[in-house]
Each structure stands twice: as structure tokens, then as C-alpha cells.
Amino acid sequence: MKLSKKVGLIIAAVVIVGLLCLVVTIYFRQVREQQDLNERLDSATVLSSQLTTQKADLEDELAQAESLLDTSQADYPQEIHSIEYGEHIFEIIDDCNLTLSSLSFPRPSSTQVSLSLPLSGTVADIFDFIKIINTDDRFASTRVNSVNLKGVGGATISITIYIHQR
């Protein structure tokens, strides 16, 4: 059986149209993928720029924090000498007209010494003592944790002396 020329042309036209549709479909799919990749590239470029800026900002903050740390560390004593702090505490207690009921210096940990100071005296004198502890350069690394007033003439003051180690 021999096909006519018309049928051959129709089959050839259908094959060409089919191939053309396939090529156009593949082309538009690749165009969409290219657009998607370009959008993702643009987003990644913007994100990269933002992260680079953020990294520079964080590096600046780190440098400032390290500088502040160095400055702060200079205020902390290299080591705690219980006798020296005891002498300072007794001196301040005496200057504030207070009486210390008892005092024991526990063995310092690697980072701090915690003290409980049972004091007797007027409330005004007790607050003077706290003010001196908070403002005296010798106690720059000291924190008053709590003040427990006991009636009119006494209080127990809890302090922590922080140790700086280099």
C-alpha cells in the first residue's frame, strides 16, 4: 500500500507541529527555570550583602565588647586576699559606728567570695556602710546581694566579692 502525497505531507506536518510544540514547551520551561534561578540569585545576592554588613557590625560590636571587657577587668583584683578585705571591712564598719557580731571568711572559690555580715547600729549607719561598699574603689568588684533588716538596730548584709583571673 502506497500512501498518497497528501497523507505523507499531513503526517510530516503533524510530526513537525508536534516537534515544534515539544521544543516550545521545553523552551518556556527553561525560561521559567532561568527566571526562578535569577530571582534566587538576586535574593542570595541581597542576603549576602546583608550578612556581610551584619558580619562587619558584629565584628565592631565584638571589638567594643573586648575593649570594655579589658577595661572592666582592670577594675577587678587579680586575687582576693581575705585579710586585706577584712581590714577594709573592719575599717568601714568602724567609720560607720557599727558593730560586727561575727565574721568568717570562707575559702574563696575560683570566681568569688561570699560574706554574710551581721551588723548592729542605726539604720542610717547601716545604709552609710552599704553606700561605702558600693562606691569605694577597693570594693569595685563587690556586689551587695541583700540587706535583711532585723528590728531597729541591726541587719545582715550579704555581699559577694568577685575575683578576676587573667
As a percent range, the share of helical residues equals 55-70%
**Overall number of structural domains:** 2
Largest sheet: 4 strands, antiparallel
| Overall pLDDT metric | 83
- Main sheet strand line-up: 1-2-4-3
Return the structural class: alpha+beta
Question: What percent strand?
Answer: 15-25%
* Unreliable residue runs: none
Q: Can you count the helices?
A: 3
**CATH-defined topology of the largest domain:** Alpha-Beta Plaits
Any idea what the CATH architecture of the largest domain is? Answer: 2-Layer Sandwich
Q: Which CATH class of the largest domain?
A: Alpha Beta
Distance between the termini: 101 Å
Give the H and E element order.
Answer: HHEEHEE
Nearest-angstrom radius of gyration? 40 Å
Record field, number of beta strands: 4
Shape: rod-shaped
CATH superfamily of the largest domain: Ribosomal protein S6/Translation elongation factor EF1B
Describe this structure in words.
This protein is of the alpha+beta class. The protein has two domains: 75 residues; 81 residues, Ribosomal protein S6/Translation elongation factor EF1B (Alpha-Beta Plaits, 2-Layer Sandwich), CATH 3.30.70.60. Helix content is 59%, strand content 17%. It has three helices and four strands. It has a four-stranded antiparallel sheet, covered by helices on one side. The chain is rod-shaped and about 130 Å long.
